[in-house]
Amino acid sequence: MKIAVLTSGGDSAGMNAVVRSVVKIGILRGCETWIVREGYEGLVRGNTQDYVPYDAPLADPIAAKRARGGVKSAIFENLRFGDGDLLRDGTLDHPNGRSLKGRYIVRAGFDDVRGWFAEGGTLIGTARSKAFRTQEGRLAGAHNLVKEGIDALVVCGGDGSLTGADIFRAEWPTLIDTLLAQGLITQEQHAKHGHLRIVGLVGSIDNDMSMTDLTIGAPTALQRICEAIDNINSTAASHSRAFVLEVMGRHCGWLALLAGVSAGADFIFIPEKPPQANPWEDEMCEAIQRHREVGKRKTIVIVAEGAHDANLQPIRAEYVKDVLSERLGLDTRVTTLGHTQRGGRPCAFDRILPTLQGEEAVKALLESTPNTPSYMIGVRENKITRVPLIEAVAMTKAVADAIAAKDFAKAMSLRDPEFLQ
Ligand code: F6P
């Protein structure tokens, strides 16, 4: 089996550990392993200009010696030490004679991913690909996989990326029929690639995927937020100030809620459970007033970036600040943590989870048949799980639908983990 792994959507700590795990376990299980650079965008672009087959002899004899000597294949040294803008120009030529320019689908060896569990972001690049949302783009993606003989795909990304994976798998028979009809693949390739094995791993700081307790990267992001609040707490208490913190999470309040619990917030706004009081400003001010009366010297309010009131009107940190200043006379500052929450080295759990889930992903691919569903690898009550991707995607969408319908009780009941309800 030839397995390719890609990371897609917003990066999250732990994505490199996914790639490392899939590559290493895949090789140990007798598979050939590949990576797709730049997410689905790389799948659509494939290996284009300057394409040098992976196994072509190296032009430079010194480089050939290095490669034969078991030195890192160096394909990935560009990724690690390059300028970080792999799509831009011809800076991808590596001294070993191989080039990544125009090559988005490349072989990965055991040593290429050494130490990747400790690296932040995603070393193989990610993108939010518009092209892959079109059937034309997916057709190009299918063609590029068939050309390389790849028959299994691991996608690590958030709910949008996994929805894309689900569509790709469902469309696969039509795509390869079209490729055959257009004369782009042979009968033999068509017969060999009748079934695309796909598995999804959830990489997202938002922890917004249903049917799993945790997404890869969420624990690290939570840790970053906690550390930031710890820092803010000391300066806030010194001046007896209030701070309003805006945290990421898109339409999910997990980061905001858990950060509030672990670092001691006075009031938290999340999308799934907006304040019910009308006006909510009274409810917030009363709570904070009470806390001040019992002796608190500082105030922390956390606003999830997707927070809104019961009528779905957005709640903005700047507005909360104005309310605290004007109604309670508090000296208030706003801090937006932004991408500091997303970048940086993964915490221990964001190395363990992707490592275990990567192993399960390879197992699921090896066991996959045309009749088994594509799985999402999750974690439930400390056990690595497999759930049909299509169900997890549908349930995640159901949360968004419940919020849009102002059925907040339902939105909360569909969220994991259940103890938060
Ligand atoms: O989904 C991850 C996430 O970090 C969200 O929390 C946030 O809304 C979004 O991505 C930010 O995206 P970008 O990096 O494209 O601004």
UniProtKB/TrEMBL annotation:
One of its GO terms (biological process) is canonical glycolysis. It catalyses: beta-D-fructose 6-phosphate + ATP = beta-D-fructose 1,6-bisphosphate + ADP + H(+). Residues 1-421 are annotated as: N-terminal catalytic PFK domain 1. The keyword Metal-binding applies. Signal peptide: none annotated. Residues 2-365 form the Phosphofructokinase domain. ATP binds at G10, R128, S129, G158, D159, G160, S161. Its cofactor is Mg(2+). GO terms for cellular component: 6-phosphofructokinase complex; mitochondrion. Allosterically activated by ADP, AMP, or fructose 2,6-bisphosphate, and allosterically inhibited by ATP or citrate. The active site is at D206 (proton acceptor). The keyword Repeat does not apply. Keywords: Allosteric enzyme, ATP-binding, Cytoplasm, Glycolysis, Kinase, Magnesium, Metal-binding, Nucleotide-binding, Transferase. One of its GO terms (molecular function) is 6-phosphofructokinase activity. Its EC number is 2.7.1.11. Pathway: Carbohydrate degradation; glycolysis; D-glyceraldehyde 3-phosphate and glycerone phosphate from D-glucose: step 3/4. It is an enzyme of class 2 (transferase). Substrate binds at S204, I205, D206, R241, M248, G249, R250, E305, R333, H339, T340, Q341, R342. Homotetramer. Catalyzes the phosphorylation of D-fructose 6-phosphate to fructose 1,6-bisphosphate by ATP, the first committing step of glycolysis. This is ATP-dependent 6-phosphofructokinase. It comes from Paxillus rubicundulus Ve08.2h10. The chain holds residues 1 to 421 of 807 of the full protein.
